[in-house]
Specification:
Protein name (chain A): ComF family protein
Organism (chain A): Bacillus yapensis
Domain Phosphoribosyltransferase (chain A): 187-231
Helix content of chain A: 25-40%
Shape of chain B: globular
Bound molecules: zinc ion
Strand content of chain A: 15-25%
Number of helices of chain B: 13
CATH superfamily of the largest domain in chain B: P-loop containing nucleotide triphosphate hydrolases
CATH topology of the largest domain in chain B: Rossmann fold
Low-confidence stretches of chain A: none
Shape of chain A: globular
Order of helices and strands of chain A: HHEEHEHHEHHEHEEHE
Mean pLDDT of chain A: 86
Structural class of chain B: alpha/beta
Low-confidence stretches of chain B: none
Largest sheet of chain A: 4 strands, parallel
InterPro entries (chain A): ComF/GntX_DNA_util-trans, PRTase-like, PRTase_dom
Family (chain A): Belongs to the ComF/GntX family.
Number of strands of chain A: 8
Number of domains of chain B: 3
CATH topology of the largest domain in chain A: Rossmann fold
Oligomer: heterodimer
Chain lengths: 232, 498
């Protein structure tokens, strides 16, 4: 139990009602006000990317898949590589604030906020693979935010991927992002054959980064590639 | 980033040509400072950027090689970003020593577990492998003689204070300027700043609010047209600009180190200065060892008032407004258990009467309330009286628009939380404080709120009414402070007797 909320630095008051009696052994990193602003992704979601389906208009949902995923799976170049993505929380303004302080300001300790839920979502016998940063970016931030998420759950990240060149993804159109040449390569000497792989990333935006990674891993012989992200 | 010490010089790891033992800057016993080579042709842009500063590597848009050569030739200084005293970390940039504001992480810059300060992380992360970069020479870049281009005149009260300000600047002293709301405190700085600039001093005006920076900067630029004023706030573009006159938010002061000969700290009452160690630290870091510090306030806190009375603090007052009319004195009106009335969907009768009277006579009014949660209860009641009534609070996205609509008289009554207690002025206004007994209405808040009334020379009067359910110490002290100022203003002959 940390004494102060990691995000707003309010003192966390421990209330001794019944529910906290049963959960008090768990670490608390956010105050109740902040915690209540993290919205878990629940209910009906897209079979592939876990986008909440209730929020989509009917014409964008086909057989429990969102239209984006349908399009990916219709594309011969991309279909079948990413088995499934799971995301923990809705990417609302609050989470945006946390992620940007974590990533861009380099406030490493905020990773702890998510470790418990990530832990609960990890299937057994998978390789946990972080999405790598370019060397310059890694120096700038001092740490890789996806690797830190894995570290803070007590697991060890397996570095299978390398960036071939740095990309400012947000500045490119969807077409560019999908059709850029391969961004990742497999780190030399890494055996991935017949392994189940779970990619970890902070945000699922278009799914293109994760699919690029999945494709190269499957081609290298991985049995399956899924992903887990904080936000969707 | 780690450093090796070679031939009594630091060499950053990326620039090492042969493998050498390296360590973080924090773990060095001493930081070697090479002597200054006089005929080294330094980069004047880098000098402008670093003079009187403490910047992170990421804030210097030059190559590591160029920075290193300036260091080796004795022009750049490095300081530890984090220091340890018996294992207790301290952030040298913001002064934080509170353990709950530190964290550590496996750092890929130094390959070690790095302790970092979370208190000032919004300005870039300072950790045990982070040097703070500065410039060796503290003597300023000489600037053209800036002549004061101001056609206004000072009232006798203002002139008196202006002289005191000049004197403090001359002899590097501290001075508290205690000026009532509407006294014209900005004008009393002009001659002092002019004098400081003429003496080749570097001057800074620091204020807690970005609004004030945005308002002051063009005003000062206009009266000192020859120099280029630097205006600093979160997201401003003047960050790399060197100027003899800097207007900044107190937050941005953290990037300065032994920079200023004169710091003018505005609205000392806007934050609990005595408890805000962080601000005190920032001001002390930003001023030169020999420098003057001028505090401006309309309502010093209790501690400071006491120090003034006991003669422990140099201060000067402007007890009267520039228009020579007395400050409106608050009247206290008991309004009973207003909370209970509100749950029944009504307002106390005397409050209602007060409001109706303003609506009928068409006089604009501000109604201060203690809590944002009251808005949905009060606003619908008032909108039944008149549609042109609005409410505003700190997080209101339409805050600016509503203030504007008030100014253009599209709104007749504006309900507000304490956010409008300072800064905004509307001519010809009455003000009510609803629930004045609430703790949020401190002495200084109440003085500021009362100070909204009678600001313009055309309408120097107006009503200020505290509706309360029990008198508080703060209410009494606020009234006493206002009456005291009026008395002093009269005595000095700066208020006209009607
Ligand atoms: Zn919180
Ligand atoms: Zn989908
Ligand atoms: Zn700090
Ligand atoms: Zn480090």
């Amino acid at each position: 139990m940390s004494e102060y909320c990691l995000f707003c630095h309010e003192q966390i008051t421990s209330n001794t009602n019944w529910s906290s009696f049963f959960t008090s052994h768990k670490e608390t990193y956010l105050c109740q006000v902040c915690e209540s602003q993290l919205i878990k992704i629940e209910g009906e979601t897209c079979d592939i990317c876990s986008r909440p389906l209730e929020k989509l208009e009917k014409q964008y949902v086909i057989n429990n898949r969102c239209l984006d995923c349908v399009r990916w799976e219709e594309d011969d170049e991309w279909k079948g590589y990413l088995l499934k993505n799971e995301s923990l929380y809705e990417y609302n303004d609050f989470l945006k604030g946390i992620i940007s302080q974590y990533k861009f300001r380099g406030d490493y300790i905020l990773a702890k906020i998510f470790s418990l839920r990530i832990q609960q979502k990890l299937p057994p016998n998978v390789l946990l693979v972080p999405i790598p940063l370019s060397t310059e970016r890694q120096f700038e931030r001092g740490f890789n935010q996806t690797e830190a998420l894995i570290n803070e759950t007590g697991q060890s990240p397996i570095h299978l991927l390398e960036r071939t060149h740095s990309e400012k993804q947000s500045k490119k159109s969807r077409h560019d992002r999908i059709h850029i040449p391969q961004v990742f390569q497999i780190e030399e000497g890494r055996g991935v054959a017949d392994k189940d792989i779970l990619l970890i990333d902070d945000i699922y935006t278009t799914g293109s980064t994760l699919r690029h990674a999945a494709k190269i891993l499957i081609h290298a012989g991985a049995k399956s590639v899924s992903s887990l992200t904080l936000a969707r | 980033m780690k450093f090796a010490v070679l031939h009594e010089k630091l060499v950053p790891e990326p620039l090492l040509t042969t493998p050498s033992a390296t360590q973080t800057i924090t773990s060095l016993a001493e930081i070697p400072q090479p002597p200054t080579i006089p005929n080294f042709s330094f980069n004047p842009e880098l000098q402008k950027l670093l003079l009187g500063k403490q910047l992170l590597l990421d804030e210097i848009p030059l190559s590591l090689e160029e920075i290193q050569s300036h260091y080796e030739n004795g022009y750049i200084t490095l300081r530890k970003g984090i220091t340890f005293n018996k294992n207790i970390p301290k952030c040298e940039r913001c002064g934080n020593q509170d353990q709950s504001w530190f964290a550590s992480f496996p750092c890929s810059r130094c390959g070690e577990t790095c302790t970092y300060c979370r208190k000032c992380i919004m300005m870039g992360r300072v950790s045990t492998c982070t040097p703070l970069y500065g410039w060796i020479d503290v003597s300023d870049i000489s600037h053209v003689h800036a002549t004061l281009d101001w056609k206004g005149t000072l009232s006798p009260g203002q002139q008196h204070v202006s002289n005191k300000v000049m004197e403090s600047i001359n002899v590097n002293k501290e001075l508290l300027v205690w000026a009532v709301c509407g006294a014209g405190k900005t004008e009393v700085l002009f001659e002092g700043i002019n004098r400081a600039l003429a003496m080749q001093k570097r001057v800074c005006i620091a204020t807690p609010r970005t609004d004030v920076v945005l308002e002051l900067s063009p005003r000062l630029q206009a009266i000192f047209p020859i120099i280029e004023v630097a205006s600093l706030y979160g997201g401003s573009e003047d960050r790399q600009k060197y100027s003899p006159l800097t207007i900044t938010t107190t937050h941005q002061l953290l990037r300065f180190y032994k920079a200023f000969d004169t710091i003018i700290l505005d609205e000392v009452d806007a934050f609990p200065y005595s408890v805000d160690k962080a601000l005190q630290y920032a001001v002390n870091q930003a001023r030169k060892d020999m420098s003057s510090l001028i505090y401006l306030t309309a309502t010093p806190n209790e501690q400071w008032q006491k120090e003034c009375r006991q003669g422990k603090r140099d201060f000067v007052t402007i007890p009267a407004r520039y228009h020579r009319h007395p400050l409106p004195v608050p009247e206290f009106v008991w309004c009973g258990n207003w909370n209970k009335a509100l749950t029944k969907g009504t307002l106390p009768a005397n409050v209602m009467k007060w409001l109706k009277h303003r609506i009928e006579t068409g006089k604009q009014a501000l109604i201060f309330i203690p809590k944002i949660e009251l808005i949905p209860k009060i606003l619908p009641l008032l909108q039944k009286l008149h549609p042109a009534i609005e409410a505003v609070h700190a997080e209101d996205p339409n805050r600016k628009e509503k203030v504007k609509a008030m100014r253009s008289k599209e709104i007749s009554l504006l309900i507000t939380t304490t956010i409008l207690e300072r800064g905004v002025t509307f001519p010809n206004l009455d003000v009510a404080v609803f629930g004045a007994e609430d703790r949020i209405f401190t002495e200084s808040a109440l003085v500021q709120i009362s100070g909204r009334v009678g600001r313009s020379a055309q309408y120097p009067g107006g009503w200020i009414t505290f509706f309360h359910y029990g008198l508080t110490e703060s209410m009494l002290k606020a009234r006493k402070q206002i009456q005291g100022m009026n008395k002093e203003g009269l005595k000095k002959g700066w208020i006209d007797v009607e």
